[in-house]
DNA sequence: TATGAATGAGCCTTCATTCAT
DNA sequence: AATGAATGAAGGCTCATTCAT
């Protein structure tokens, strides 16, 4: 969570104040962008949310596009941090896969800002992401976790063979992503409350069943 | 497809011109909204795309929100029309399910405006959709097709039992939706071109495998 | 009330239809202008109130300014018609003056469109009125009635001498005009309802008292 | 006159610049609204008159309605300030009444913006005034001055008894208000120049005569 | 004759960004 | 270092007026 500490050199009081301001700005940007989208977001609103002067916001971040990019990297990084905490090595492949699938679904349900910003970034054809220098923040440990689980599962004979980890990754995410991201239009069509606990748990179980059902040898 | 035909009476030349203008406006709105999102879209741009005076646009549709709603209903209706064309009765459950899954994936790939608008409508928490009077346009025949296929498949013993059609519906859509909608951010992460024919076909096959793999008894 | 009939020649059916349309338009204009002022009035609204096509409105009246002038002449003429009905000759000077004063007050209370339009015409420095050809419509019989009453009253010794009829005319109107025209701001200041019957009657009596009190020899 | 002084602390340079800008805007608003009415006034014109950026105008005042309200309060307050300067205590009731009547007439003649704005506010049924928080600005010392003069005049036997101060207030104002506000339409009707010095002085004297004539015991 | 469609200018308001202190 | 003021360019929407049938 803490901003990556520079190796060995302590931050001066001023530097740390600036860093804190930067954090507040980016947090505010995430909130505003997630709620309004890029075009709908207001720089003024971000400054206000951050409790900072608009001029400083420009001094620190540059402009609206840069704000967006910083916010986008933030939501990716936040998810990556959570993913890192997953420790599936000591679980059986089936149990590990269950945990992984549940984790993704829950994360998406609990972090609408992640879905929101990804959707808008795709609306912009991912142009900002392509220009990002911090691509490392995008990297997800999930793919390797999946690969490892698939290998172990295959070896133990509990998973089918020749499953492409990346395709499975996309599927695991997609099964929850669509439900979460489109819960409002789905609600209008099916006339249900997809945010109720019952519906959420039902969906979570269904996704687990579906992935594991597919992976059966 | 056909505009609601008034009983027996043909439309006057004027009426048909008006209808044509309305269509052009809505088409233009779909294009602009899909490309820019609601907040990013410009009414001027829609008028220009439609080749119509801005004043007339307001006379026909009312305001930006109404334009959005009309465009949203349009993309829903367009998909519904295509869905209606599916004739799965004469196919085996497995073949039918394959066709249905492929259809959805391809539709989403070929109609980014559908994904775009749904995403933005969800950003707005589906408020416009909830206010829509033409809810009938939202209704999708897919759910019944899925139910029917599941029943037949169960009866024939080729599908597992007790699969919830709505959950399966959400899954079938979600598996393709995420890939299509998020192809640009996925491209940035995996450094691939997810619009290339090979990748698209690979994904399509994977989705079919996944759904059918899950449905195995 | 009927439009002045052309001497001796009967109107054709078409002419009378046109005349009726013109009347409807002007009536509608009076209503709209009185409610919204010149700048606030909408030509569309006038056409709609008149139940006539906007194009015809322009054909008959010309443009917004001409509509205003026609409406202005109409409200002046309407008041003049009512004034003509006053028959004060057979009354005593005091009684006649009372009637005249009461008439004016009541007319203003009952015809807010008259006040409204005069106010706005004065906002425009009376430019339209100065360009009017139908100045005859502006002519008020009141001045002569007042002169006559003053003369008789002086002769009978019931009125003071050397009262300027025009000044008295302006006073008689002014005492009621301000109360009527400014009833809303007065209401805000004095926190009373100046449209209630009691207040209206009180004011009417006060004006009569004031004029006659002044006229005492 | 003095802006509300904050206890003991002088205004900073910045605060006083802001206050000055606000004043300029409101002055400009008064001028524009008085000349064009609410609907006819252009916010652009106000900004230009004030020599300020349109955006700042909105930052300071909010919107057109708020501009109107501020301008309206300003013209009321300006008149109240002048009224406060009247010192009638040391004059005889008759002299005091003369001064008061003349003051009102002259004020209206010299401040057409006051009449203009009141007229338009009444066109709007006084809605803005009713929503005003600064109602105190509306309060006029005139009523008490009149009451006091009436009491003293009655006691001294120079004024008639039982005159309602509020009715007299309305009359004093009305006698001049109508002449001033409607001078242009009156000019068209009587074909005179009611702004000439002679006419103005004649009217002023007439009003004095009328009020005092009425007040005779 | 009579009608709805069309238009260009303009209005109120807001935005991302930069100045000046 | 930090702040509020300032700006020009738009954005949504409306209006009086004219066209085309």
Description of the molecule:
Four copies of one chain form a homotetramer. Chain A has 217 residues and is mainly alpha-helical. Chain A has two domains: 12-62, Arc Repressor Mutant, subunit A, CATH 1.10.10.60; 74-215, Tetracycline Repressor, domain 2, CATH 1.10.357. Helix content of chain A is 73%, strand content 0%. Chain A has eleven helices and no strands. Chain A has helices at 13-40, 43-50, 54-61, 64-85, 93-110, 112-123, 127-130, 142-156, 165-181, 183-190, 197-215. In chain A, helix 1 (13-40) crosses helix 4 and helix 8 packs across helix 9. The longest helix of chain A is centred in the first third of the chain and has 28 residues, at 13-40. The radius of gyration of chain A is 20 Å and the shape is globular. Chain A starts with 12 loop residues before the first helix and ends with a helix. Chain B binds a DNA duplex (21 and 21 nucleotides) through residues 13-14, 17-18, 21, 42-44, 52-56, 58-59, 63-64.
The appropriate CATH architecture of the largest domain in chain A is Orthogonal Bundle
Report strand % of chain A. Answer: under 5%
| Largest interface (C-beta under 8 Å) | A-B, 57 and 56 residues
Total DSSP helices of chain A:
11
Low-confidence stretches of chain A: 1-8
How many strands, what sense, and barrel or not for the largest sheet of chain A?
Answer: none
Order of helices and strands of chain A: HHHHHHHHHHH
| Total domain units of chain A | 2
Helix content of chain A: over 70%
């Amino acid at each position: 969570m803490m901003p990556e500490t520079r190796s060995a050199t302590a931050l001066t009081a001023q530097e740390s104040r600036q860093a804190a301001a930067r954090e507040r700005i980016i947090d505010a940007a995430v909130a505003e962008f997630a709620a309004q989208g890029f075009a709908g977001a207001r720089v003024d609103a971000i400054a206000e949310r951050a409790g900072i002067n608009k001029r400083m916001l420009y001094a620190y971040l540059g402009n609206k596009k840069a704000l967006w990019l910083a916010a986008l990297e933030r939501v990716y990084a936040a998810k990556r941090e959570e993913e890192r905490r997953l420790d599936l090595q000591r679980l059986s492949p089936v149990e590990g896969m269950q945990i992984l699938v549940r984790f993704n679904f829950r994360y998406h349900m609990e972090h609408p800002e992640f879905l929101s910003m990804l959707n808008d970034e795709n609306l912009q054809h991912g142009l900002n992401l392509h220009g990002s220098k911090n691509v490392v923040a995008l990297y997800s440990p999930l793919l390797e976790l999946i690969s490892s689980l698939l290998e172990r599962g295959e070896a133990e004979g509990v998973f089918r063979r020749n499953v492409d980890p990346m395709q499975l990754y996309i599927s695991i995410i997609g099964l929850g992503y669509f439900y979460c991201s489109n819960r409002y239009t789905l609600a209008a069509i099916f006339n249900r409350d997809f945010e109720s606990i019952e519906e959420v748990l039902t969906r979570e179980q269904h996704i687990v069943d579906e992935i594991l059902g597919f992976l059966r040898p």
